[in-house]
Specification:
single chain, 132 residues, alpha+beta, 6 strands
Length: 132
Amino acid sequence: MSQENVELFHRGTAALNRGDVEYAVRHSTEDVVFIAARSAVEGRFVGHDGLRRFFADNATSFEVFQAHYDDVRSLDEHRVLALGTIHIRARGAGIETDVPVAGVATYREGKLSRWEDFRERRAALKAVGLEE
């Protein structure tokens, strides 16, 4: 199951990158909790409506939103650690940058039930009991 979750994560990332909200909804639990880096300001994205709001916010705010994970590993039978960057270009202003992303995805019965972005590699590793 743990390698399966890594594969699910990669497929979910591909859906995120193409803006495929319906894929994300079909492959997440009804009570999914999505804690993005911007959740400190905008709050958590909860449930399928929350995922739809997250995708809509991306479409409104960014011309480009592409997640790239160079380190994705299974932590146990339910959780995946993902480390990488998100390449963004803000809509209108044209500002383009890479933002660090370091998060933990939790799966239940083959569906995403939680994503928490810690932004910093060290914080994500610490959250799962690993140290560099």
